[in-house]
Amino acid sequence: MIGVFKVDDKLGKRLVMILKGFPCSWGRCSFCPFALEQSIDMGDVITTNRRIIDEALRVAEGGDIRRVAIFNGSSFHELPYDTIERLRALAGERMFEIESRSEYVTLSSMKALLDYYGPERLIIRIGFEVYDEDIREKLLVKGMPDTELRRIHELRDEGVKLGLPVEIWVYVLFGIEFIPEEKVVESVNMFRRMFDGVIAVKYKRYLPEHPKEMPVSESLVEFLEGNTDLVDLGGEQWVIKGER
After folding, report:
1. Could you tell me which CATH class the domain 3-238 is placed in?
2. pLDDT band at 241 (very low <50, low <70, confident <90, very high)
3. What is the C-alpha to C-alpha distance for residues 60 and 172, in angstroms, rounded to an integer?
4. Whole-prediction pTM value?
5. Residues 150, 160: Cα–Cα separation, whole Å
6. Taking the domains of the chain in order of start, what are their residue ranges?
7. What is the pLDDT of residues 79-99, one digit of tens each?
8. Contact (Cβ atoms closer than 8 angstroms) between residue 45 and residue 39
């Protein structure tokens, strides 16, 4: 799934880069497959990401890309400096979208990203996955308790008061055995009140030890389509490739 993709969906025309990352500092989420594509080899990470960024710059030359999204299977803040620096050519005066664990998101880190990249707007996606703390912590093992959820909510409100061009978006996971559909609905409704955007992501099982996939009702898909900013059902380009 590593590479550059031009996407045109509910969020508009976007350039999506799936970069190579180091293993996530948390690395305990019960459902996450991204370790399959991560590397502990600094040279491998830097070389791979240089190739992807060069290709992204070529694709962006057309001038119709106003939103750039960066994903690396862990947190943006865990990328090597070489990659962080090279992304400046793509971020300036565009909507710049990154993904992060919540502990890296602070007022100072948001201001630093704004100063460094000069985006039109910074969008930070955080995978809280579900509003219910017991499911999030005991079954998904996210390491993001309610105290952290409230902190990010309050940080979001502080950013609004300061007039910072920053938005906090949250993932909601569905189609996984640990999260019944009523909890998906509850999560969407609560997160819509607390944050700037909600993206629903359909779970896919990659390893035998991961939770099972569950059928998804048409009524839930209809609810998600009408009440979230984007429903990510996956696709061929999102297939995780790799072996342990």
Report:
1. alpha beta
2. low
3. 30
4. 0.94
5. 15
6. 3-238
7. 999 999 999 999 999 999 999
8. yes
